[in-house]
Amino acid sequence: NLISYLIRNADNVLIGKFWGETALGLYSRAYMLSSLPIDQVNQPISHVVIPMLSRVQSDPERFRRYYIAALGLAASLGMPIIAFALADATLLITVLLGERWLDAVPILLALGPAAFLGVTHISTGWVFISLGQTKRLFRWTLVTGVTIALAFAIGLPFGAIGLALAYSAVTIALRVPGIVYCYRGTPLRVRDFFLALMVPTAASIGAAALLIGLRQWIHVHANVFVQILIDAIVYGLAFSTIYAIFPQGRRNLHLIKGLAGSVV
Question: Coil, strand, or helix at residue 182?
Answer without folding.
Answer: helix
